[in-house]
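Records of this kind hold a single protein each, on a pair of labelled lines. With that in mind, the following record should read easily:
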Amino acid sequence: MPDRLMRSSGTLYFLLGAYFLLHVLIRLAMPASLELDEGQQLFFSQSLSLGYDSQPPFYNWLQYGAVQIFGTSVAALTILKNLLLFLSYMFLGMTANLLLRDKGLAAIATLGLVTITQVSFEAQRDLTHTVAVLFSAGLFIYAFVKTLKQASAWRYALTGLAVGFGVLSKYNFVLLPLAALIAVLPDRNFRARLFDWRLMLSIVIAVAVVVPHAWWFFHHTDIATGRTLGKLIGDEASRIKQIADGFGALAGAMIAFALPPLLVFRIAFGRQLPAAWKASTSWSRLIGRMLIVIVLMLILLVLFAGAGDIRPRWLVPFFFILPLWLCLKIEAAGDVPAFAPRRFGMIAIAFMAVVLLILGLRSPVMGMLGRYERPNVPYGPAIEAILATGKQKPSLIVASDEQLAGNVRLHAKDMPVAVPGFKHLQQVYTFNSSHPVLLIWRGKGESVSAAPQMLTAWLSSQPALKGLKLAGSDIARPYHYGRAGDRYHFSYAWLYPAATAD
């Protein structure tokens, strides 16, 4: 099987399709308790907006569409994610087939994504915008290479579309096309593509895709930048310490990202991998220059933009081409060892099996150990029990955070859910004795009575609800796969405006 797999693109894509289908089935078999990004996505999917929070909205728009098709469900979340991941692998595979003569190496370049843990594991566990930017980066690299090999208007247009999608996925994506433009300059044959009038197609289409969100961005800069800047820029008093921490974070992120694929390539190719460092072709030099330029840009961000908390997953749209570059170097060095494709294929399949096993057993095992994670939290039973305590269906459910709001929406079908701090997404609701308000909050699973300040502030900002007393009640339900007696607590309060006004 591995030999056929590594020599046939059709067989490879069939395997990848089956692999991602298994991911979908495993996720559907797990408890209907959402992770952090999953909950946020389901909360935001209540409406279409030009912007939502500090992340650009491309994935949110796609998620909204998936919810329209599959309903408010776990299926809507996991099918979209795995479809985008499958397409990301396909784009890299199609690019590899354009650049590599050896089909075995092209398959290795594609399966190399499996060895990048931020792609194979973290993206499945709980990433969304990173998945969107990987998809966009894969589309960009494919369109970029196609344009360099044989320019046409539609290829320039496709490149521009990919750039637009990328910027709408994550703002840091702009480093990738910028690095590609700089990397093209030293090669005369490639450089000619920059002076083709059809480049304007790329620019116009990219701008057209980004402009609507850009308009929203500049009218909501506090929402769009606050959380991201908080992650990137530390609060260190010392500028020197901040830079030192930034370089340490960057070095650690690059090692965490690159070490697994490098080790796997070393095992698969043996001594040929070190020997390939000196070999090159015009394409390997181009990709290599892109990687170098991106590293230099990241260094500049640390030095001048205060980036101090760089994480491995933020490198995904830049260094996902590492396996492709390694394969280009290996092919440039000469004959590919006959054992290498089969060995790499076996390792990749082992990686896939381990990831599927970990994701499938994570919740039961953590429950048995009493080290509960988000999928162990009994959102469904608790929310159903809370709704049963009300006299009428609530006009609005207000949750204390986005992840909780997404879980509420999953289990309280067709009921609007709000979170304080997202006024730009909130609609107008009627509050009276027939249309009560339900507030839900929680601590870290323990019993909580007093509502958090954000909920009391929201309550005081609603004219129809002023003067109402917020008296919290507690409810607890057993964890999914939990130990006997272990329970997770939620707090809630029903507010009936007209009745209280009397």
In short: The radius of gyration is 25 Å. The longest helix spans residues 239-269.
